[in-house]
Amino acid sequence: MQPAAWNLYALLCLCACKPGDSLSEKAVSRPRRSPDEDGKKCAYTFLIPQQKITGPICASATGPEPDLERVTRMDIADVREVLSKQRREIETLQLVVDVDGNMVSEMKLLRKESRNMNSRVTQLYMQLLHEIIRKRDNALELAQLESRVLNVTADMLRLAARYKELEVRFAALAATVNNQSVLIMTLEEQCLRTYGRHDPPVVPPLVQVVPENIPLNHHFTNEIQRNHNRAFPRGSRVDALPTNSPLGFPPPPPVNLSSEGPFRDCYQARQAGHGISGMYLLKADDSDRLIQAWCEQGLDNGGWTVLQRRRDGSVNFFRNWENYKKGFGNIDGEYWLGLENIYNLAKQGDYRLLVELEDWVGKKVYAEYSSFHLESENESYRLRLGTYQGNAGDSFGVHNGKQFTTLDRDKDVFSGNCAHFHKGGWWYNACGQTNLNGVWYSGGVYRSKFQDGIFWAEYGGGFYSMKAVRMMLRPID
Ligand SMILES: [Ca+2]
Q1: Class for the domain spanning 266-475
Q2: Which SMART domains match (predicted)?
Q3: Helix/strand/coil (H, E, C) string of the chain?
Q4: CA of 418 to the centre of ligand 1 (A)
Q5: Considering the entire predicted model, what is its pTM?
Q6: Ligand 1 mean position to 224 CA, how many Å?
Q7: In the chain, where are the structural domains located?
Q8: How far is the CA of 431 from the centre of ligand 1 (A)?
């Protein structure tokens, strides 16, 4: 194709050239004609690229005519054919180019979409990874928590087992102490008999009741190591001296004393709108005697007249008949209301008795009797109780129908004087299952030759001294 084009350009030059053109002289090229034609102008044919043709090109005009015409026709035909062929090819190429252009733009779009999809997939993949890591972390935390819970549970179980073990050992020790006290008593009796004592002192039988559940968290007390009674040494035989006070004790500090009254009992004070516990002035119907008493107005709708209270060992309860008859102690602390006062109050109507007991772990239990009154002093204030209900056990029942005994007036059914052994004043039997006016021991279980603590046999046995006790009266609803 290329040689054909060059021939075409040469032919065009031959037609356009004139003889004597100066351009022919400047050009240097291969000769087209024989050497005999030298010396004539325009004897050469120049092959010049199309874009460089800026003027006339001379060619030999003296070549044989027939050759020139034949070549020209052939070339023209060839050129035309080539041209048409090129045109078709150009059109084809143009089509291809157009198609390619569309494809390129489509490809571009696809690439763009692909990139978007890739970034979206990457984003989702990262999210997925994040979720997986987060879940793995959560699972780890959960596993750690589970293991901690398991560890704590195991510790708790170990402690519970240890606690139960200690509980069992403590119960065994308490039982041993109880048994040993009984054994010591027996041995002492044997010793006295063996070594010539012909008249051994008669002692009351010890309370043998050892409940299944002795209150825990207490410890043994020792009368040598401890001084349990703050006001009076434990076991002291101080016979209380009668005092000039109408209640047998110094006037109590003026606390919560209601300015109103006197009332016939604390229930009447409660009915009159006095809802605060404290000291009230009472006067029984058939008596001219004024009584100072503590009214419990917060417990079970109030209206309770407190007859007796123990709570800290600050008052000695080992006293004579006169003291027990008139009363002693501190109204806002430990006190005994007095048998005559109790007798006068209780005979006003139908009353019930509530005994509230608190052990050394702060647990409170109670014993309630459906009725309560005393007989007169001529009958040594004989006790009359109704039926029991409560959760402390009925340890007071065996005292029902018994007269009151003090150290100086023995009315119990035992051959000796129960007040001597139990160190208090009480409606002793021989001698009984409870001793709420006994010695206040700190700590619960105590050691003593005789059972002289503040015990309630059904709750704690004879060698467990309660921490706090209250005896209260209220009319039957
Ligand atoms: Ca007796």
Answers
A1: alpha beta
A2: FBG (SM00186)
A3: CHHHHHHHHHHHHHHHCCCCCCHHHHCCCCCCCCHHHCCCCCCCCCCCCHHHCCCCCCCCCCCCHHHHHHHHHHHHHHHHHHHHHHHHHHHHHHHHHHHHHHHHHHHHHHHHHHHHHHHHHHHHHHHHHHHHHHHHHHHHHHHHHHHHHHHHHHHHHHHHHHHHHHHHHHHHHHHHHHHHHHHHHHHHHHHHHHCCCCCCCCCCCCCCCCCCCCCCCCCCCCCCCCCCCCCCCCCCCCCCCCCCCCCCCCCCCCCCCCCCCCECCHHHHHHCCCCCCEEEEEECCCCCCEEEEEEECCCCCCCEEEEEEECCCCCCCCCCHHHHHHCEECCCCCEECCHHHHHHHHCCCCEEEEEEEECCCCCEEEEEECCEEECCHHHCCCEEECCEEECCCCCCHHHCCCCCEECCECCCCCCCCHHHHHCCCECCCCCCCECCCCECCCCCECCCCCCCECCECCEECCCECCCEEEEEEEECC
A4: 6
A5: 0.54
A6: 29
A7: 82-194, 266-475
A8: 9
